[in-house]
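Hi L., both proteins are below.
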Amino acid sequence: NIAIAIAKLVRNVQMTTIDVNREALEVARVNAVTHGVADRISFQEMSLFDPLVELLPQKYDVLVSNPPYVSANEWDHLAPEIVRFEPRTAITDSSDGYEFYRRIAQIGKNLLLKNGLILVEVGHGQATHVQESFEGAGIEGLSTVNDLQGIPRVVMGVCPYVSTSQS
């Protein structure tokens, strides 16, 4: 949904979207066709943790992610409608809730052009920890965007450098 919304709002954008869930990608493809943006989105079935993700054939201006951010402990306390109907891998990293953020911080320099922008959705109470992880990876200009309840929900920053070699 994020890729489709961006493609609808930004006319000349070309995007690559990745997901490990084949069914989720198929739904996204259908939605992209429905909204007339399928020609501007490349759908890749892969994990963010796959080493090949760092070798995607191009660098990007912006990296946007709504990663699984619920910790394994929080999973057991989620509303039944989430646990029953949402794929577990879309909600939790089955760890501490920060695995994907650490990975994004690690690979950002390999995926982004110089001064590329990183935007990630975060769970309630996670913004400070995510900012610290990003800062430790050299991401600069960190800030947050609050949701309608005033809760920090997006962390963004700039990757001022690019990798000189692929990992």
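That was the first. Here is the second:
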Amino acid sequence: MPVLATSHRTLRILAAITWLSGGFVLLAKGGQLLLILREIEPYWAMPAAGVGIVAGALKARYLFSRFCQRNLDRIAALEAPQIWQFFRPQFFFFLVLMIAAGATMSRIAIHNFAMLVFVVALDISLAIALLGSSLVFTRQRAPT
């Protein structure tokens, strides 16, 4: 029995935890930037948040939920699940790139008003998309 062998259920839980963690981190980051935006120019805070919420809900419904379901279907099809297989290796590569890009954009946004509005909307939209689509994980009833 390989050292990294695990159950399908464990992989689903790890995928859900990763997905939800990303959503909560982006929600906190977007919220902090929203507070900064509100101090600089209160008029732009609510439109930026509103665009983020609407875009995030659309992404959750039409894009991210499908990604989650495909990942859960892939996990269910694994014959000998390994602990690292809760996402494909490419996902982890793109996750590192997205974190680096997000951190860079946030640093730039502190000194650039237009970028700040954009990053607030982007972070909130991604947070809503991740959190909204995470419902797919609770509805999944695959074999253990």
